[in-house]
Amino acid sequence: MSKTQPASKAIQMAERLCRERGVRLTNQRRDVLAAISASTRPLGAYDIMEALREKQPKIAPPTVYRALDFLQAEGLVHKLESLHAYVGCQHPDHPHFSQFLICNDCGDVDELHSAGVTGSLDDAAHARGFEPDHRTIEVVGRCARCLAQGSKPAP
């Protein structure tokens, strides 16, 4: 199970942050965030469309992608590049670069905030004359729960 906050709390925080930032959390954006926040696993754009199908039967991929772009830009969701999927941000109230632990067995995603990892990566990039815009660090393996249950790694 992903360690995101409950959907209602995520929506309340998003509404407050958007108001403070002077940006609009439209109904479409709110619905996409609610679908991601309510899920126990990362969701791809088509998973989100399916989750919203009952409420918005004619929702199209560009609509979902535009909402996801907005939610990412505002730090309300993160994209897991290796999964082409999205998770709610655990700390959307402050800008940060996250690292993710992704369990191959159960699909759990844990968001980390290690200043040491970010600092080391920035130092290495700067030493080569490179200025990073975006950092996505994903560590794939098995979570403590799956290890304790003795499950076999996924093929």
UniProtKB/TrEMBL annotation:
Co-factor requirement: Zn(2+)
Subunit text: Homodimer.
Gene3D superfamilies per record: 3.30.1490.190, Winged helix-like DNA-binding domain superfamily/Winged helix DNA-binding domain
Domain of life: Bacteria
Subcellular localization, as worded in the UniProt entry: Cytoplasm
Chief site of localization: cytoplasm
The name this protein goes by in its record: Ferric uptake regulation protein
GO cellular component, one term: cytosol
Pfam families in alphabetical order: FUR
Keyword Repressor in record: yes
Keywords: Cytoplasm, DNA-binding, Iron, Metal-binding, Repressor, Transcription, Transcription regulation, Zinc
Family the entry assigns: Belongs to the Fur family.
InterPro entries: FUR, Fur_C, WH-like_DNA-bd_sf, WH_DNA-bd_sf
GO MF: DNA-binding transcription factor activity; transcription cis-regulatory region binding; zinc ion binding
SUPFAM superfamilies: Winged helix' DNA-binding domain
Cofactor note: Binds 1 zinc ion per subunit.
GO BP annotations, alphabetical order: negative regulation of DNA-templated transcription; regulation of secondary metabolite biosynthetic process
Lineage: Bacteria, Pseudomonadati, Pseudomonadota, Gammaproteobacteria, Chromatiales
Sites where the protein binds Zn(2+): 103, 106, 143, 146
